[in-house]
Each structure stands twice: as C-alpha cells, then as structure tokens.
Design a protein that fits this description.
The structure holds two protein chains of two kinds. Chain A is about 75% helix and about 0% strand. By secondary structure, chain A is mainly alpha-helical. Chain A has a single domain, classed as MetI-like (MetI-like fold), CATH 1.10.3720. Chain A is globular, with a radius of gyration of 23 Å. Chain B is of the alpha/beta class. Chain B has a domain of about 140 residues: P-loop containing nucleotide triphosphate hydrolases (Rossmann fold), CATH 3.40.50.300. Chain B contains six helices and ten strands. In chain B, helix 2 crosses helix 3 and helix 3 crosses helix 4. Chain B is globular and about 45 Å long. Chain B starts with a strand and ends in a 5-residue tail after the last strand. Classes of the chains: A mainly alpha, B alpha/beta. Chains A and B meet through helix 8 and helix 9 of A and strand 6 and helix 2 of B.
Chain lengths: ~270, ~210
C-alpha cells in the first residue's frame, strides 16, 4: 500500500470550532446583556428592589419549594430509574412513554392538567383536607411534576451504566437483594444522585408555566421568582425584571459551583 | 434450562467433592448460563441443583456457599481492595479482628499485600483477577465457580495464575468448577473434565491420568 497523505486535523477542528463558537457567543452574550445592556441593571437600585418584602417572600418561597422539589424528585427517581433499568415487565413500553410525558408536554398544558386533576372527585377530596390549588403545595407539585421526569431519566441512565454483575456477585457473597442495593448499587450511584438533584433543582427554579396556571402568581402567596419577572414585565418594570433575573443567575451559579466543589463530577451523567 | 430462544436441556453432571472440574465448550454454548444457575443467579426452567446432597435449587445465592468469580471480575469500584476482600465477612458480621486476620491471610496467599489500599480501577488484569478470587474465597465457600478466569491475561500472568489456582484448590477450597474455552487450561488443572457441545455434557475423570 502506498503511503497516503491525510493532512492535519486542524481544518476540521477550526470548522467545528467556528460552528460551536456561535452558540458559545450567544450564551456569553446573554449573560453580559443581563448585566450591562442599556444601563438597565444598576446594583444599588436592584438591591433596593430585591429587598422589598414581596420579592424577599418570592425568593424564600423559590428556594424552599425548589429544594423540596429536588429532594422529592431524587426520592422518586432512584426507585423508578432502578426498576426501569433492571426489571422487564409487561407494559414497560407504556410506562416508559408515560415517564416522558412531562418532558414532552407543553408546560402550560401540564399546569392546566394539574388544575383539572384537582377538579376531579379524588382531587376535591384531597383539597378538602389540604388546600393545594393556588396555595404553596401547588407550587411544589407543579415544579415536581416536570423536574421529577428529568431526574428519572437521568437516574435510569446512571443505573444502566452500572454493571449488574456487581449486584450478582454481592448476592453470592451473602447479600439479600436489599443489602446488595444499599451496599453496592446506591454507593456507585451517589454521583448520579447528586447530578439528578442538581438537574431537578435547576428545572424547578425555572419552572413558570405550570406554576402560573396551577398555583397562580399571587403576591405573598404563590409568587416565585419566575412569576416576579413575569409580573414586573407585565407592568412595564423592566429594571425590576432584570434585577430578579440577575438574582436568579447568581443563585443558580452559586448552587452549581457548590455542587461541583463537593467533588462531584456531574459530567457524563447529564442528559 | 432456557435462555432467550436458546435451550439447553438434559444437562446432567455430578462433580465429586474435592474435584477441580474444568468445563470447556465454544463461546455461546451456555457455559456462563450454567454457572449462573449453579450460583442461584438464574432459575432453571426445570431440574435441580444439589450441593453435597442437599437440594439448593430454591435457595438464595448467598446461602449456597458458592464463591463466584465472573468473567469481568465485577470488583466493587467504590470500595478499596481491602474492602472488597472484607465485603462478604462484613455482611456475615465477623468481628473486626477476624476480618483483619482473614484479609491479611488472603492477601498473602494471593500475593496482593501491596495492593490493599488501591481502588479496583487502578489494578492490572492479573491483579484484578487475584482480588476477585480473594473476595470470593473470603467467607470460605464450599465450591468456587470461575468464569473464564484466565482469559485476557498476558502469557506470564497466565502462568502465575495457573499456579495460583492449583495452589488455592489444595489449600483454600475443596471443589472448583472452572469454565474456559481453552483446552490447555483443562490439561493443566482438571481432575475432572466437562465438555459442553451440541447441548450435551460429557464428564471425564482425569484425576489419575498424570
């Protein structure tokens, strides 16, 4: 065979780099615009606005509800993800499709469906004990419905990447099925669980459509930060909306950095 | 037994206590499946598994007293070598002192004293195989099942491990079932040869041939 010249790799990398570069510029541009465009973000005024009681309430509700949502999502995602990755059963295709419904459904439809779910006799019965609709539980439920679906997907792929042989060996070494799960499966899935927590938290933080329809956006009641942005924009207070947006960027960056600093590699476990 | 569309039936064999059985057969003929049935990781469609005269077909894998070393070793990646060796003993609630003694004994026997604090991800193929053997042997199983333990090893390591397996059979475990597709391993190790071909199993006692 004749030696065959193939040329260097840099033209390919340059071409790919230019294509990818456009997207990177867009993302960087977004962040810069929030902080610098048109003098809409003035730290002093922003801080003053953020320190008003309604915004402080919205911030607390946002942090509280998203933390709870993320915990509930992981709590559901671990068993569902594990069963879907390890067990085959009749109707699995249907279950699989159902699990993706919250991801593919338009957010407003999720919100409307939640609202209608609590108009059914079962929903009404629950409401008569604990008020859900237009109250704080509806905020968490709206966020959870969507965020959990992402966590389930992620945990499933985490469990699928784990070698089932490890569990089998653990069984031969004297573990019950439960012990093998606790001592061999869960520790290996720990990083994935943190990634699922982060992903569902980030989804919950940005959730707006379902929250708006199912919980409303009432000041001092069900207003979360995305609702604040919407409310402020609708009354023409763009500075207020920018201030809240900057706050949300800072909150989410802080959480992501804390999670990364926790020594966890979330790469490869994301969707 | 059945696996997918593939059926292996009328497989009958009895391995005497103290034997080193080497089962050979082509890749895909059902050797691993057979091993999984013995270990209790898979239920046979029909038939029975007896160990030392006791029917264990319905027993959980952990109560059969079988040590299992799968082909890919499947060491627990989140545990150090020491913790891998101690795993079965911790489950059995051995005392700390007894665990330390047993782990030390196994490490010496397997020549892995220097590796005890390593993570499994940083072991060579031969080292990982030794650790997997140690983990299976730790609770003193009555039977040791090895799935292709010497495949994917270089020539020298292969020789070392052959010698090690011979030694272990004498000192650590009375009965071994070792599956392989290499005839040469059977020549070197077997007291009993099992050949799985065309869905039929033949057993040959070669313990007095040498």
């Amino acid at each position: 065979m004749k030696p065959h010249r193939t040329g260097p790799a840099w033209p390919l990398y340059t071409a790919l780099g230019i294509l990818g570069g456009f997207y990177l510029l867009l993302v960087a541009g977004l962040l810069l615009a929030l902080f610098f465009a048109d003098g809409l973000f003035r730290p002093g005024a922003a801080l003053e606005f953020l320190n008003t009681p309604p915004i402080r309430y919205a911030l607390m509700l946002t942090l509280g509800s998203t933390l709870l949502t993320a915990m509930l999502s992981v709590l559901v995602a671990v068993p569902v993800g594990y069963l879907m990755s390890r067990v085959s059963f009749p109707g699995k295709v249907v279950v699989d499709a159902l699990l993706d419904v919250p991801i593919v459904l338009p957010p407003l439809v999720v919100g409307l469906a939640l609202l209608m779910l609590f108009m059914t006799p079962v929903g009404r019965a629950i409401e008569s004990v604990v008020p859900i609709t237009y109250a704080i539980p509806s905020v968490v439920l709206a966020q959870f419905t969507v965020a959990a679906a992402f966590a389930v997907r992620l945990m499933r792929s985490v469990f699928e990447q784990l070698d089932p042989r490890c569990e089998q060996v653990a069984r031969t070494l004297g573990c019950s099925a439960g012990q093998a799960f606790r001592k061999v499966v869960l520790p290996q899935a720990a990083n994935g669980m943190i990634a699922a927590w982060t992903l569902s938290w980030a989804r919950a933080l940005g959730e707006f459509g379902p929250v708006l329809l199912f919980a409303g956006a009432t000041r001092f009641r069900t207003e979360v930060l995305p609702s604040t942005i919407f409310l402020e924009m609708s009354v023409g207070n763009i500075e207020g909306a920018v201030a809240v947006s900057v706050l949300m960027v800072l909150v989410s960056m802080t959480v992501l950095i804390l999670v990364r600093l926790g020594g966890v590699n979330t790469r490869g476990a994301s969707l | 037994m059945r696996q997918g569309g593939f059926t292996l039936s009328d497989v009958n064999f009895t391995l005497p206590e103290g034997a080193y059985g080497v089962m050979t057969g082509k890749t895909g003929c059902g050797k691993t499946t057979l091993l999984e049935i013995l270990c209790g990781l898979r239920r046979p469609h029909s038939g029975a598994v007896r160990l030392f005269g006791q029917d264990v077909t319905r027993h959980e894998p952990g109560s059969r007293g079988i040590g299992y070393v799968p082909q890919d070793q499947a060491l627990f990646p989140h545990l150090s070598v020491r913790e891998n060796l101690a795993f079965a003993l911790r489950i059995r609630r051995w005392s700390r002192a007894d665990i330390a003694t047993r782990v030390g004994e196994l490490a010496e026997r397997l020549g892995i004293q220097g590796l005890l604090d390593r993570e499994p991800g940083r072991l060579s193929g031969g080292e990982a195989q030794r650790v997997a053997l140690g983990r299976a042997l730790a609770p003193r199983p009555r039977v040791l099942c090895l799935d292709e333990p010497l495949s994917a090893l270089d020539e020298d390591t292969h020789e070392d491990l052959l010698a090690l397996l011979r030694g272990l059979h004498r000192t650590e475990t009375p009965t071994v079932l070792h599956i392989t597709h290499r005839r040469s391993e059977a020549d070197r190790l077997a007291t009993h040869r099992l050949r799985l071909a065309n869905g039929a199993l033949t057993l040959e006692d070669v313990s007095h041939v040498d």
